Amino acid sequence: MFSVILSTASKYLLPLLLIFSFFLLLRGHNEPGGGFVGGLVAAAAYALYFIGNGVGEAEKLLKVEPIKLIAVGLLIALLSTIPSLFVGKDFMTGIWLKNNFPVVGKVGTPLLFDVGVYLLVLGISLKIIFSLAEEDK
Amino acid sequence: MEQIIILPIIIPLFFAVVMLLFWNKVHLHKYLNLISGLTSLIVSVIILSFTISYKIISLQVGGWVAPFGITVVSDLLSSVMVVITAIIGFSTALYSIGTIDNQREKYLYYPLLQFLLMGINGAFLTGDVFNLYVWFEVMLISSFVLLALGGRRGQLEGAIKYVTLNLLSSAIFLAAVGILYGIAGTLNIADLARKIPLIDQKELLSVVSILFMVAFGIKAAVFPLFFWLPASYHTPPVAVSAIFSGLLTKVGVYALIRFFTMIFTHDIGFTHTILLVSSALTMLTGVLGAAAQNDFRKILSFHIISQIGYMILGLALFSPLAIAGAIFYIIHHIIVKTNLFFVSGVVKRLKGSYLLNEVGGVYKYYPMLGLLFLIPALSLAGIPPLSGFWAKFVVIKAGLDLNQYLVVAVALIVGLLTLFSMTKIWNEVFWKDDPSGDNKNVNEMYESLTTTKKFMMYSPIVFLALITIIIGFYAEPFFTIANDAATQLLDSSLYINSVLGLK
User: Fold this and answer.
1) Does the beta-carbon distance from A71 to B17 stay under 8 Å?
2) What is the ipTM of this complex?
3) Cα–Cα distance between B492 and B81 in angstroms, integer?
4) What is the pLDDT of residue B315?
5) Where are the domains of chain A?
6) pLDDT tens-digit profile of A50-60?
7) Among candidates B6, B17, B23 on the partner chain, residue whose Cβ is nearest the Cβ of A74
8) DSSP conformational letter for B292
């Protein structure tokens, strides 16, 4: 069932929701939010787009396969544990850069880990959604 | 130096991630899997040698101090289990190359195997009850998929039973974790070991300990909670049932040993008597169930149960020697049982069936395979001088020391019946003539294998058989390690001091 309203609205909502998901991701360390919620919101954005425009369009828009997102997300999360070893601290200890950056705020390995979680959640949700959608056809 | 003990968890994760990154280059997966197995083996042996020389190594992940953060601990028991896991992981990697079909490889068989190993290593190394639950879940979810992968009718039937009972066990486990936290206010194993003796509500503690016993009992397939095991273990490909039979139930046994030596020792007369009774019944029902079976892998599955009984017996007797025996038994059993499953897979390829009345005559043209079967089979039954003899000997000696003549008698009878089962397999599969009348009759599944694949199939069998022989003829160092591990478990002060940083 194709709906012009949903299709048009989802095209405008997608960037907005993605921006919101980034906001949640960056807000996450000390306040409610974080990679998990951010990833879910981003997945919801793509899911909405797929409902409006079909799974083929949504996959085209995403450009990468969801499973790659899963792998890259896990890899980033894994890499974020390495710096702690070089500083000689316990495994996975959070290492923060001294200066604050505009927009992003404090930058450190926990943020990197959160980015990994974000991609992982996005990838897994989309993998599940797309698989179910393709099953339906 | 202590950072190294996180590696058995990180290495499988890293290789699984790399495989996922190149998920469509399936032919690379098997080699990555093999490299991962080899690296894990090397790292785990280094960890074991560190643990032997420095006693107990603990790591506070993220630098958060002990009772609050995530604790990873490697005492002797943990590091021995990690080494065994690595040995089995490596052997299964080899065997998988020889036997796993393209379809399964395409559906991410190898990354799942890595996640499974990560979960198992995590469960062995964690120093925290809640993290233990999490690692159990990592392990179980991977095992669910591995069991169902391929989607044949029998497999799905087995998987439903396996998943349902394991989810039930996880629910009980989680409830028990919650109640324990409510009573003790901590879930760090070292902290629990310190605080449990100070708690007044002994009745409530006994209730929680029984909840844990049931949860781990389901996972370890202890009487009367074992029904899922023979219903599911014979359904997936051999490489999968081999790693399951070797490692998964033993994670349950490990958790039982950890909990009922370090944490719940407030009422040994109550908890350990239950364990003692159930161990005797586990041995008996397992071996009698096996005697009634006519399927190679089902016989082996029932024997897992009966052998679990010996390990629980060691724990239930609760003397230093008995627990050392239980640990030695685990070491011996994992290697032997995995190997027997590997052999069953080769026989299936040769003769096209697991059913004993449909195969035969293997010995005539493949005498070496017969020998490779006999080593683990006789070791399982406890024939000297193989590893199973020493394992049974220690447990039974401990039973005699404590005047538990009834369970000792059960253990001895079960040993005899095990020998009966193994002889049955020997007679049916290797000795009697092939039912088609032609012993040369070889299934095309075997003939179509390339020499490399055959090598990959036989090499882990030879490797594990060698380890069995080494443990048998050179048991002293292995027993010393098991004995020291038991001492560390019974005197938890070393563990507590290492984790909580008390001097």
Assistant:
1) yes
2) 0.90
3) 18
4) 94
5) 4-136
6) 988 888 888 88
7) B17
8) T
